[in-house]
Design brief:
The protein is an alpha+beta fold. 23% of the residues lie in helices and 34% in strands. The chain has a 4-stranded antiparallel sheet. A two-stranded antiparallel sheet has the order 4-5.
């Protein structure tokens, strides 16, 4: 799988920004990739060493209307990526690809 198809985008909320102070980054990832794929892609794209990767999957959420049930939110997969030795990624939008 290509690197840019594994890691889609960072998840930016108050909770994830508090985790970033401890060296844990939250990214939205592809549903089919494994922890090893995420680790390799993150290390290659940002040039840091990854300590651990945890994956969470969210379910679809629905909303009832008068006539039918509408889809409110699609299911996603998020990865919590912890870095070793208090390393930091200065800017998640800026990439440094190592070959």
């Amino acid at each position: 799988m290509e690197l840019f198809k594994i890691i889609k985008k960072p998840v930016i909320t108050e909770k994830t920004q508090a985790l970033e102070l401890n060296g844990v980054y939250t990214m939205q990832v592809n549903k089919l990739c494994t922890k090893v794929d995420i680790r390799k892609a993150f290390e290659t794209l940002y040039g840091v060493t990854v300590k651990s990767v945890n994956i969470t999957k969210t379910r679809e959420k629905f909303r009832n209307t008068r006539k039918w049930v509408a889809l409110k939110k699609r299911s996603t997969t998020k990865a919590l990526i912890a870095l070793k030795d208090w390393q930091r990624v200065a800017d998640l939008m800026k990439l440094s690809i190592k070959d």
